Amino acid sequence: MTRMFTSAWTRRRVGLRMAAGLLPLLLGCDSGPTPDSGYGAGQPVPPTKNCMEVCARSADCFVALCDENTSSTRYAGLRLVVDDQCLANCTEAQLQTMASDASWQCYFQSTCRQVFENDVCEVNARYSCP
After folding, report:
1. What DSSP designation does 71 have?
2. Which residues, in sequence order, are CB contacts of 106 under 8 Å at separation 6+?
């Protein structure tokens, strides 16, 4: 029978490489996309298109997605800041002309990840976690 590793040094080197290769998998730190948890799906669709509703939804999704992506709750305190920034930059007239009835419904009925990561509502919704 032939030995697979001829020396202790070789066995140690191969063992360290295998451990280093498995470390990201064991820690759950692979570089793949975060799975969709379903958060935010099926929310009631507000009857009128307005900045208050779209900004509240955006802030809620931002916090949820960033917390999911980082496996933390460190973004929870930013909800009001994100909401206020959105409200400061949103105009009702622009929202009325840009949001179709279908995209408005999609924005509230789809998961946050579908809306902001996959743009399923085709509204160019994006997010980025600082």
Report:
1. T
2. 115, 120, 121, 123
- One digit per residue, the tens of pLDDT, for the chain of length 130 reads 444 444 444 444 434 444 344 334 334 444 457 899 999 999 999 999 999 999 999 999 999 999 999 999 999 999 999 999 999 999 999 999 989 999 999 999 999 999 999 999 999 899 999 8
Nearest residue to 104 (alpha-carbon basis) of 39, 43, 62, 59: 43
Scanning the structure block, which residue is given the tokens 């973004």? 75
Could you give the CA distance from residue 56 to residue 53 in angstroms, rounded to a whole number?
5
Single-letter residue type at 26? L
